[in-house]
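Key idea: predict the complex, not the pieces.
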Amino acid sequence: MNDVKKIAPASYPFALFFIALLAMWFAGKYSQNKAEYHLPSLIEDSYTCVASHNPAAEKLTVYMNARSVAHSLGELLCKDPVVQRQYHQVQVYWGGGDVSDITFVGKGIGDLVNTKDNIVQAFDAENTHGYKRLASYAQYQAYLIGRDEKPELSREYLLGQRIGLLDYPSSRSGHIIPMHLFRELGLREDQISIVYSNSHAGLRDLLANNQVDMIASYWADEDRARFSENYIQAIGTSDVRGSSWYLKMNGRNTDLYCALQATLSSLAQQQQSTYFGELNFVEGCAQQLVGR
Amino acid sequence: MQSLRIAYFGLKLPAWGGLAKTLKSINKFHLGCFFICYLALQSAYFFGLSLQQEFRVERDILAVENRISLDLPRLSLPNPGLNLAGNPAQVRDYLDRLNQLLVQQQTLVRVISLQQFDAGDIADTGVTLASEQEHAHVQVERALYLPGQTINVVIGVCQSTFWQRLSIFPLITSILLSLVFFPYLRARQAVEENKSAAADNAHTRPTTKSAALILDLENKCLRLGDSNASVFLPNKPLCFYAALLTYCQQHPGARLCQHAPLPAELLTLANQYFLRLIALGHTIRKRPDFDMNLEKMLSEIRAALDELLMEYPEHKSLFYPPKALGEGSRSKVHNFALLHIAEAHWSIKGK
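Result:
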């Protein structure tokens, strides 16, 4: 007992006990893993590749709508000798609808853009920023596609029908042409029920799930698996031109113009989809029409 | 390895041999000490962990809200007012990638849904925490307020189980702490035992063995238990003292007064002891009258005790026939009875 007394006063056990309590408190507190409270951005909107190791050269900005195609295009462009000679890197953006279209085309940010003619016309981009058409995807027909019967183009038939349309107004087959038709037939928006979707694929899902009676879209060979070709009704007077590739021409950079045509042609040959597979070239270079 | 030292506490713990002895000597006080330590330390650990976890969960939730808020302009969420259909595939893909990120960063939260879009099961995305299924999920609903629109986010919080909140640290520390406390307990116990023993001595056995009074009738003397010192006492006082001791022991609280006749019982006892002395061959004289010369007899007894108890003055009160104090020996209130005498205090040899 005297030993204990010598080394410690009577309050020693209590002090020790409270120190231990405090230590356990902190042990519990710091037993947790250090967490990172800053979550990095998850959304990618572009693909970048290095074309050449010439830091003085510029960046080629490409804009298009389909994310799936953007990667292949970027890789092709980075391997192109003309692009390598003129540019340091290639950055391919894929868009998120009409707002990005307007930003890249209307402000002239994109060097090579894939957009619809009506957007280019709306901003007079050919005169404002010097955009020149390189190529256009194949023309196609707009249809009303029914599920169980062929739609009729009459006011009586369409009254009260559920019709699937695209929710972006720049789409011709999915928005402009059917809306035009309803107006011609004297159908107000409250006389039919319009169901919007974000994409042509989404429209097809709506139709397959019987959430709509018909949809306004194009007809593709792949659709035969789910729908009948007998139940489609062409709308609009003329064929609709697909979206086009425009190049912002500064001076007479014909090398680049032709190199890009060649690249787009090989891109078209890579594609599985009917739409991206058929590309019509405008003028100037050796090959005029590339089709699979 | 002879002794286990813990420099941090500055204490020397028992050596291994001593440790085994310590373990053997563990009693319920030690176990109680250990359990109290363990409970207190484990509670401290538990509360430290819980508080930190709540803090962490809240920060995780804020981080997720922040991320989603920043990404909202890029997410195709439906807005019926603007005829926007939304892109379920894109939103679900986003939520799945966000959840994968949350798993990678070992956060405690997962996004369950954003507006009407449910995130896929985390197991579907190929990144699964081993204990993910065992966690209870608590759903927390948060709202992000945009101009003209409210975005609802449902976040699942992984609750750790009871067992995950236990730790080996409190156990180890409470064992160490108990080992440190054991000597204190033992010291404390020793003090208490000493105290109670002392108390026992004071109340029931004021004379230790060494102080027990022995009346030796064979040698006609008074003796203390362990010492050889003895005091001779003449026949008459010896018999009277023996009778007095016996009488007072048998009649606690009796009053004996010099001016009142002595109780017959006391006189009988004195006579019996005298007969015993005759039997032992110490005297052949006739029995003395014990009623006579009482004062002289008591003086002789007191003188003998004074000599005997010279080294043990504290025992005097026990064996000493009280003297008259102040009131005068002739006073009627004076009582010379031995008030505290008990059987254990004395014995007679040769009875």
